[in-house]
Design a protein that fits this description.
With about 210 residues, the protein is mainly α. It has 12 helices and no strands.
Length: about 210
């Protein structure tokens, strides 16, 4: 609503710094926080804003598959399958609160082991067939590594690290926010850069 209120003002009275801050906050809120805590309902509520932005970016395959997901899960699939899918959207390998991740993080790690770190090879061995032949051994090979590392009591395998002390960082950020006032509207404040409202642009494209 604040963005629309800014657009209603005359050009000379608009605060372009404030507009940039509002758009950045909107983009960031759509991305990370709700995913960290595995709030699937809120994650799905962000799909349509992302659909509009992907539409504006020209990522039509993303738009197609996100719309297909919403249609299938909420209108076509039976309740049991819907629950299974929603429970698998995010995973938490560390089992720590607020540390849920997208499953593709683990898939990309597996791809790294497959293609480069373990069985990629060089020269003639660096072929698709070689990767397929060796891929079945990846988990066994990783388990052997972990067994040796655990037996040697290597500290980097620990997952219960102390939480980082962010006190000084937050204090520095607060000082900057008080000086820069990015969340306070100042009439006529100009900016060297203008962040485009891709959600609004994509929504217009989506419905036209």
């Amino acid at each position: 609503q604040k963005l629309y209120d800014l657009r209603d003002k005359p050009s000379s009275a608009r605060d372009r710094q404030y507009k940039n801050s509002l758009l950045l906050n909107e983009y960031f809120c759509l991305y990370k926080e709700i995913m960290n805590h595995s709030d699937i309902g809120r994650v799905e509520s962000c799909f349509m804003p992302w659909v509009f932005m992907f539409k504006a970016f020209g990522k039509h395959k993303y738009v197609k598959h996100m719309m297909k997901y919403l249609e299938n899960v909420h209108f076509l699939y039976p309740p049991g399958l819907k629950k299974a899918i929603c429970s698998s959207i995010l995973i938490n390998p560390s089992a720590k609160p607020g540390c849920f991740k997208e499953p593709d993080w683990c898939l990309e790690l597996n791809n790294l082991y497959t293609k480069r770190a373990k069985h990629g090879g060089t020269g003639l061995n660096h072929t698709e067939q070689h990767i397929i032949d060796k891929s079945l051994l990846i988990q066994i090979f990783c388990n052997l590594h972990l067994t040796f590392e655990r037996n040697l009591a290597l500290g980097h395998l620990m997952t219960r690290h102390a939480e980082p002390d962010m006190t000084q960082t937050f204090e520095a950020v607060l000082r900057y926010l008080k000086e820069a006032k990015p969340h306070e509207s100042v009439q006529g404040w100009e900016s060297k850069h203008s962040i485009p409202d891709m959600r609004d642009k994509g929504q217009h494209t989506f419905y036209t």
